[in-house]
From TrEMBL:
InterPro entries: P-loop_NTPase, Thymidylate_kin-like_dom, Thymidylate_kinase
HAMAP family per record: Thymidylate_kinase (MF_00165)
Domain Thymidylate kinase-like: start-end pairs: 33-215
CDD domains, A to Z: TMPK (cd01672)
Family: Belongs to the thymidylate kinase family.
GO molecular function terms attached to this record: ATP binding; dTMP kinase activity; nucleoside diphosphate kinase activity
Ranges of compositional bias, category Basic and acidic residues: 11-21
Polar residues bias: start-end ranges: 1-10
Keywords assigned: ATP-binding, Kinase, Nucleotide biosynthesis, Nucleotide-binding, Transferase
Pfam families in the record: Thymidylate_kin (PF02223)
Protein name as it appears in the record: dTMP kinase
């Protein structure tokens, strides 16, 4: 199994991906939208999925983590709503388990040539536990070793104070929805800045449409129409080719550590 390094942290261990060759077979692309609470992740994930379906005729699977529909997700939901009291380490492992239980679904969708757009992934789990509870990056990363790695991660950089003011207006608040905690999480996310496949989009002073346009410009290079090649499944009967930017190939990539 070939391996390629992705330097994302100055901790004693570094996050990387392992690669499993896929040969000539094409697969879909795995895109993750990351960010702080109330940074616009859900809105932008939804708009991206809609754009891929309508503009490019692609079949898209939309996902989000935590997935609160599963038994593990229900436990996480109770924890976030402060209806259960478990240690932050136990909660961290539940978050990771929630991602693991969906790996078969993600891989099957990609094997079927579908695009997967995901609201949050392992990076959030790592950043929240490292930033808020000061656990080492090594410990935070370890449970997610071996997860499918995204082809593209788009981080929505935002102001935690503005985000939390919006949350207060809605009258809803969960365990980590606090400006000070969110500030620490934002700093923890910086461990991933500069990693291959990682793109940061500043949202300050930008409208929803302006942020959407920036995201489209990042995604467009990996989605190109082509009527005479086999690639991603089209929900309109057309065939769509994936144009592979530098560093992107048909292999399966997995999160791993050095």
């Amino acid at each position: 199994m070939a391996q390629e390094n992705i330097n994302v942290t100055n901790d004693s261990k570094k996050l990387r991906t392992c690669k499993e060759d896929q040969g000539e077979r094409r697969r879909g692309r795995f895109i993750v939208i990351e960010g702080l609470d109330k940074s616009g992740k859900s809105t932008q994930s939804s708009r991206l999925a809609e754009w891929l379906r309508i503009e490019h005729g692609l079949e898209v699977i939309s996902m989000c983590f935590p997935d609160r529909t599963t038994e593990i997700g229900h436990c996480i939901d109770q924890y976030l709503k402060s209806k259960s009291d478990i240690s932050h380490k136990a909660a961290h492992l539940l978050y990771s388990a929630n991602r693991w239980e969906k790996q078969t679904n993600i891989r099957q969708a990609l094997e079927d040539g579908k695009m997967v757009v995901c609201d949050r992934y392992a990076f959030s789990g790592i950043a929240y536990t490292h930033g808020i509870f000061n656990e080492s990056l090594s410990w935070c990363m370890y449970p997610d070793e071996g997860l499918l790695a995204p082809d593209l991660v788009i981080f929505l950089e935002s102001d935690p104070n503005r985000n939390m003011a919006t949350r207060l207006e809605s009258g809803q608040k969960e365990r980590y929805e606090d400006a000070d905690k969110q500030q620490k999480v934002g700093e923890a996310f910086r461990a991933f800045y500069g990693s291959p496949g990682w793109h940061t989009v500043a949202t300050g002073g930008q409208s929803i449409e302006q942020v959407h346009e920036k995201i489209k410009s990042l995604v467009t290079p990996i989605v190109v129409r082509c009527e005479h090649t086999k690639a991603c499944v089209s929900n309109t009967g057309k065939v769509v080719e994936l144009d592979l930017p530098e560093g992107l190939d048909e292999s399966w990539h997995f999160l791993n550590f050095v």
